[in-house]
């Protein structure tokens, strides 16, 4: 008899993974909410601002592969401890010595990528405790750590006004150290841990076409989410003339919308099927992103459209990771790293393209419209593979989960 979600798994690990993921994402995108103040002091142009906020996203994407390998070799808990220590050391150095140039800001962004790589640790840490029929819900809860990006937008600009943006790096160390203690005490590796794989086995995963499809699908959903989260403070500041603090509040509202609905995306995928849920989310995301590219004349209308776009992307994130463990359960560590990397690359593309769009055309219209087109392209791709998925690894004779 199928047990309810709350009767299985390991709740301390699930919520420790969420807390670690949440605060890691908070510092991962920290340069975005601080970008208006940093750019003013360092005299950055729009393209430089776009690249600065996109750098942690790119390095976080690439480091997810590294962390995915460490998850399989060292187990998730130890891999997470290593990543947390590196991020804490980088922020401590930035706080004590300061950031005095564009190059130093980029260097800090590179080290903050280790925080973004928390994705490749937190999801396998939680996933391995849960059976297939509860994967969407479990990974939706752990993945709701995306909400940390909202914490950065909500508090970082105001703290920068009060104490100076350089001191925000030091203040961020307080919650990070608390998260480190909670993670160390409560998180546990699941007893059903796959054996470590050789390099050839990792490369073998890339020979599977489904791995590339999942990477593309997540590059749109998560890439759209994190790319927007990194850029929205600049967007609301440039588009509507909001000061950094109020632009941060607007950004926080949008990111909360995208983060808090991620578990519902996973839950909906568990009940209706991941393919059906993801297809609907691509349609909605494309509509709202294209609407935003046309331009909203008032700040409240712009806020409403961005909230809807972020909600669609957030639910899409949950739907993708309802499907991944069904197809690659034994390779979930490396697949989380690969798929997460692709999501980060999508976020880097969106954040940097918005900066270049602003630099070259004076508006964000082109960057937003192109990404809306990518959402529709992902929908076409999903339509091509859905029949094969439902009749092979997603067949009722293979899994009880709805595909």
Automatic annotation (TrEMBL):
Compartments it resides in: Membrane
Superkingdom, taxonomy of origin: Bacteria
Keyword Membrane assigned: yes
GO molecular function: nitrate transmembrane transporter activity
First and last residue of the signal peptide: none
UniProt domain Major facilitator superfamily (MFS) profile: residue ranges: 12-390
Its membrane topology: Multi-pass membrane protein
A Gene Ontology biological process term: nitrate assimilation
Major subcellular location class: membrane
Any Pfam family the entry gives: MFS_1
GO cellular component, one term: membrane
Residues passing through the membrane, by range: 12-31, 51-72, 79-99, 105-126, 138-163, 169-190, 211-235, 247-265, 277-294, 300-320, 332-351, 363-382
Keyword Transmembrane helix carried by entry: yes
Record keywords, A-Z: Membrane, Nitrate assimilation, Transmembrane, Transmembrane helix
Protein family per UniProt: Belongs to the major facilitator superfamily. Nitrate/nitrite porter (TC 2.A.1.8) family.
Protein name: NarK/NasA family nitrate transporter
Organism name: Methylophilus medardicus
